[in-house]
Protein backbone atom coordinates (compact mmCIF):
# COMPACT_ATOMS: atom_id res chain seq x y z
CA UNK A 1 0.00 0.00 0.00
CA UNK A 2 1.50 3.34 -0.98
CA UNK A 3 1.30 6.57 1.04
CA UNK A 4 -1.62 8.04 -0.92
CA UNK A 5 -3.84 5.03 -0.32
CA UNK A 6 -2.77 4.92 3.32
CA UNK A 7 -3.74 8.59 3.84
CA UNK A 8 -7.10 8.02 2.15
CA UNK A 9 -7.84 4.99 4.33
CA UNK A 10 -6.85 6.84 7.51
CA UNK A 11 -9.01 9.80 6.44
CA UNK A 12 -12.01 7.50 5.97
CA UNK A 13 -11.62 5.91 9.40
CA UNK A 14 -11.08 9.29 11.03
CA UNK A 15 -14.32 10.55 9.51
CA UNK A 16 -16.13 7.60 11.12
CA UNK A 17 -14.47 8.32 14.48
CA UNK A 18 -15.40 12.01 14.20
CA UNK A 19 -19.02 11.16 13.41
CA UNK A 20 -19.23 8.83 16.41
CA UNK A 21 -17.68 11.49 18.66
CA UNK A 22 -20.21 14.09 17.52
CA UNK A 23 -23.09 11.67 18.14
CA UNK A 24 -21.75 10.93 21.64
CA UNK A 25 -21.48 14.66 22.27
CA UNK A 26 -25.08 15.26 21.16
CA UNK A 27 -26.35 12.41 23.35
CA UNK A 28 -24.44 13.79 26.35
CA UNK A 29 -25.88 17.25 25.77
CA UNK A 30 -29.43 15.91 25.54
CA UNK A 31 -29.01 13.98 28.78
CA UNK A 32 -27.47 17.08 30.40
CA UNK A 33 -24.46 15.06 31.55
CA UNK A 34 -22.08 17.07 29.45
CA UNK A 35 -18.52 17.03 30.70
CA UNK A 36 -15.60 18.96 29.25
CA UNK A 37 -13.92 15.82 27.94
CA UNK A 38 -17.05 14.87 26.00
CA UNK A 39 -17.00 18.23 24.26
CA UNK A 40 -13.33 17.83 23.44
CA UNK A 41 -13.78 14.24 22.26
CA UNK A 42 -14.34 15.28 18.66
CA UNK A 43 -11.32 17.59 18.44
CA UNK A 44 -8.65 14.90 18.05
CA UNK A 45 -10.22 13.23 15.00
CA UNK A 46 -11.12 16.66 13.63
CA UNK A 47 -7.51 17.83 13.81
CA UNK A 48 -6.26 14.65 12.16
CA UNK A 49 -8.97 14.98 9.50
CA UNK A 50 -7.64 18.47 8.80
CA UNK A 51 -4.09 17.20 8.31
CA UNK A 52 -5.03 14.25 6.08
CA UNK A 53 -7.55 16.34 4.14
CA UNK A 54 -5.01 19.08 3.45
CA UNK A 55 -2.50 16.47 2.32
CA UNK A 56 -4.99 15.00 -0.15
CA UNK A 57 -5.99 18.50 -1.32
CA UNK A 58 -2.41 19.58 -2.05
CA UNK A 59 -1.28 16.26 -3.54
CA UNK A 60 -2.57 16.79 -7.13
CA UNK A 61 -0.91 20.21 -7.34
CA UNK A 62 2.43 18.88 -6.09
CA UNK A 63 2.41 15.93 -8.49
CA UNK A 64 1.40 18.20 -11.38
CA UNK A 65 4.26 20.56 -10.63
CA UNK A 66 6.68 17.66 -10.21
CA UNK A 67 5.63 16.10 -13.53
CA UNK A 68 5.87 19.46 -15.32
CA UNK A 69 9.43 19.86 -14.04
CA UNK A 70 10.42 16.45 -15.41
CA UNK A 71 9.06 17.11 -18.90
CA UNK A 72 10.51 20.60 -19.05
CA UNK A 73 7.07 22.26 -19.36
UniProtKB/TrEMBL annotation:
Keywords: Membrane, Transmembrane, Transmembrane helix. The chain crosses the membrane at residues 12-30, 36-62. This is Membrane protein CcdC involved in cytochrome C biogenesis. The lineage of its organism: Bacteria, Pseudomonadati, Pseudomonadota, Alphaproteobacteria, Hyphomicrobiales.
Amino acid sequence: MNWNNWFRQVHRWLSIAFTVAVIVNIIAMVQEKSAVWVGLLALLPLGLLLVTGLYMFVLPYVTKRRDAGRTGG
